[in-house]
Amino acid sequence: MSGVLRLGPVSRRFSPRDAGIAAALLLLVAVLTLLGLSLGERPVSADRVLAAFLPDAEALDRMVVVEWRAPRAFAAAVFGACLGISGGLFQALTRNPLGSPDIIGLNTGAYSGVLCVILLGGSGYAAFAAGAVGGGVLAAGLVYLLAYSSGLQGFRLIVVGIAVSAFLSSANSWFVVKANLDEAMRAAVWGAGTLNGIRWPQLLAAGTAALVLLCVLPWLSRRIAQLELGEDAARVRGVRAEPVKAVLVLVGVALTALVTAVTGPIAFIALAAPQIARRIRRETSGFDAVGAALVGAVLLSGADLLAQHALPDSALPVGAVTVCLGGAYLVWLLFAENRRS
């Protein structure tokens, strides 16, 4: 049993099971966000967390919850959703579970862009965002041009992306070695991938830009579904494959770059979130923006809680936690695939 949800020109087919899964994931995001607001050196109970957002809240609770913890907790959910959608877009483009921004070099390109900004003396979210978007777009353009041969093939794109990522990683290491100590320290801290120090202006700027980009998703989702039938079939239906792929790449790069500009490169989320969403829905293919976004939000929110509280008296960069989770996930995936074969 299924139905169709319509909102103006946008429609989406859903089943009660899909709606239940989405509701459960949304509830899990809310619980993780509440834990992010509650836990810390000064624990705050759930009722006081909610009261802290009211106009007559206690001053200390308001400062701790609203000014210090809320931007980080909400950023983990929003940025995780952006990374999940970006990974889903690239996996739909390449038709390969390894097609994600951190595999095909776009994270590394965004890192290169921000490194250039740092080495030129720039600072602040606007400069970092411009550098990240510029670096990510240039890396995507380079991968696209090198991988293009009578059309864009997914496997070729991944192989070229891995090569470009390796080259950019070497260049980034060379830049850091040649930089002075202060610049090298700034690059190292930012390059670890962290949600430390996020404040409301950064979150609102990145969230607004992401919201604008997400307005393209209904248009993209319909065309991705048609491309999955094959480019010839899509062309018969009036879909021009290469322009759609170019828009898909630009939106995916921009979503990744918006996050990278604030947090630094965060691996694994874009790779795993769309795959986990499909496994939960028991689907083998297809682009599920809602599922990828919610799973991405759960993964990054959970990873950030681990980064803050897993070790006593020591906070880890969230990027280090996601790399460890990503390694464990890939090992599990390898064993699962071996059992099937």
Keywords for this entry:
341 residues, mainly alpha, ABC transporter involved in vitamin B12 uptake, BtuC, 14 helices, 73% helix
How would you characterize the overall build of this protein?
There is one protein chain. With 341 residues, the protein is mostly helical. The protein has a single domain (3-340), classed as Orthogonal Bundle (ABC transporter involved in vitamin B12 uptake, BtuC). It contains 14 helices and two strands; from the N terminus they run ββαααααααααααααα. The protein has helices at 16-38, 46-51, 59-94, 106-119, 125-147, 154-178, 181-191, 200-214, 217-227, 231-236, 241-263, 269-281, 289-309, 318-340, and strands at residues 3-7, 10-14. Strands 1-2 form a two-stranded antiparallel ribbon. The longest helix has 36 residues, at 59-94. It starts with a strand and ends with a helix. The relative contact order is 0.15. The model has no long low-confidence stretch (mean pLDDT 81). Its main location: membrane. It is found in: Cell membrane. Pfam families: FecCD (PF01032). It is a multi-pass membrane protein. This is Iron-enterobactin ABC transporter permease.
Quick recap:
This protein has 341 residues and is an all-alpha fold.
